[in-house]
Design brief:
alpha+beta; 16% helix; single chain; globular; six-stranded antiparallel barrel
Length: 445
């Protein structure tokens, strides 16, 4: 199965289907979604995305030419603020756009400007200057339950304001490799290319999700009943930062957490597997400063229950810098409450950037442990990196352990300085990295 984002195919055929409830729980014969949709439709917009011409190879060697025809695609969006004209959509819909043309439900068209994008969550905010807009009513995606009826509205294959219905098939879908932060609502409402950025609403017409992707066989982009939407609580939180700052300013705690398995819960004498087990606390990090330790179990953050390590990561991914937060942890079968202010990555990564600009955005900690398949491993473990860092561009991820730089072993900041000081500043750094049971080389440029 493959994940496909949904905006980039515009055709002259329709693959959307209206899904009816089964007879065992059928609605009354006169039931209709039409009154709700009449109220919601003005809040959902269609997007036409125009991209700049792309260079292609010419008949002359090494001389690119520019194709005059512009590339276009279609997508969807939802009006969140009628007075300021803010529209929420997906980053993959509007990223690198030369022009964004918004079509309202009544056929009016407007050019939009990009307010901000967040590739990690695939959320974007655009803005139009238009009178008499109608903003959608926001729902509470935390209140959704599997089996709730939902309706998807969007622009599949360029078929404007198409409506399909279904149910919530699952909640909290993650580890799909689609986005950096994943907490998807899964639905069987028919979603197809062009639906990206559109509305997933409940039967009351409240926005509960932003349609984003489908899972589908490799040979076809069509819907097979597995659609994915970003929960509106997550998307709206990101939107607020994009509107305020033009970007998402995520804080950095400095931990690596893991799922709390039944075996681990039994070892730590816990009665439940709810929570996230802290497996690593980086030296000189905010986590170390506030007193977190390996073996602590995070139970809640800002009053919200933490069920697993993935939820903990998503929760911290939504907390902006300089925000006060409280955390309840379990340590030695006793609950403790920690209160602190989230710090920005820049305040914690300065010393590594001072060694080399190629280490900008990296936060490292010393590592020395026996690892299955490797024996004793010494190095510098990555516990955080910013999305725009050279390390991220080199496909490095948190948890990787750097054991050598330019084929010289590194175990601490001193050995790292020694490995770098004799390197050619114009050449990339060669990193040897342990990842899981394997190892790889990576170039920092």
């Amino acid at each position: 199965m493959f994940a496909r984002k949904l905006f980039n195919i515009c055709g002259l055929f329709m693959l959307a289907a209206w899904l009816l409830p089964t007879p065992s729980y059928a609605a009354p014969a006169n039931a209709s979604l039409a009154p709700m949709l009449k109220n919601v439709m003005p809040s959902v917009v269609n997007l036409r995305i125009v991209y700049p011409p792309q260079p292609v190879a010419s008949h002359k060697e090494n001389v690119p030419i520019i194709v005059p025809e512009q590339n276009e695609s279609v997508g969807s969006g939802v009006i969140i603020d009628s007075e300021k004209g803010y529209i929420i959509t997906n980053n993959h819909v509007v990223n690198n756009a030369k022009e964004i043309i918004v079509t309202l439900n009544d056929g009016q068209t407007f050019k939009a400007k990009t307010v901000g994008v967040d590739p990690e969550s695939d959320v974007a905010v655009i803005q139009i200057d238009a009178p008499n807009l109608k903003a959608i009513t926001l729902g509470d995606s935390d209140e959704l339950a599997v089996g709730d009826f939902v309706v998807a509205i969007g622009n599949p294959f360029g078929l404007e304001h198409t409506v399909t219905s279904g149910i919530v098939s699952a909640l909290g879908r993650a580890n799909l490799g689609i986005e950096g932060y994943e907490n998807f609502i899964q639905t069987d409402a028919s979603i197809n290319p062009g639906n990206s950025g559109g509305a997933l609403v409940d039967t009351q017409g409240r926005l509960v999700g932003i349609n984003t992707a489908i899972l589908t066989p490799a040979q076809t982009p069509a819907n097979i009943g597995i659609g994915l939407a970003i929960p509106i609580n997550m998307a709206h939180s990101i939107m607020l930062q994009l509107v305020q700052f033009g970007e998402v300013r995520r804080g950095l705690l400095g931990i690596i957490a893991q799922p709390l398995t039944p075996e681990m819960a039994h070892y730590f004498n816990l009665s439940s597997i709810d929570g996230a087990l802290i497996g690593y606390v980086a030296p000189d990090s905010l986590a170390e400063e506030v007193g977190l330790r390996p073996g602590d179990v995070v139970l809640s953050v800002n009053g919200k229950k933490i069920e697993d390590s993935l939820q903990l990561r998503n929760t911290f991914g939504l907390i902006p810098v300089d925000e006060k937060l409280s955390m309840i942890i379990m340590r030695n079968q006793r609950q403790q409450n920690l209160e602190f202010v989230m710090l920005s990555p820049e305040k914690l990564t300065t010393k590594w950037q001072a060694i080399s600009p190629l280490f900008a955005g990296l936060q490292l900690g010393e590592f020395k442990e026996d690892l299955l398949g490797h024996g004793e491993v010494q190095g510098l473990q990555i516990y955080a990196l910013t999305p725009d860092s050279p390390a991220a561009s080199a496909q490095l991820i948190p948890g990787d352990i750097i054991i050598s730089v330019n084929q010289q072993p590194v175990t601490d900041i001193i050995s790292l300085k020694d490995a770098i000081k004799n390197s050619d500043a114009e050449k990339p750094l060669l990193l040897h990295v342990v990842r899981g049971k394997g190892a790889l080389f990576a170039l920092l440029r």
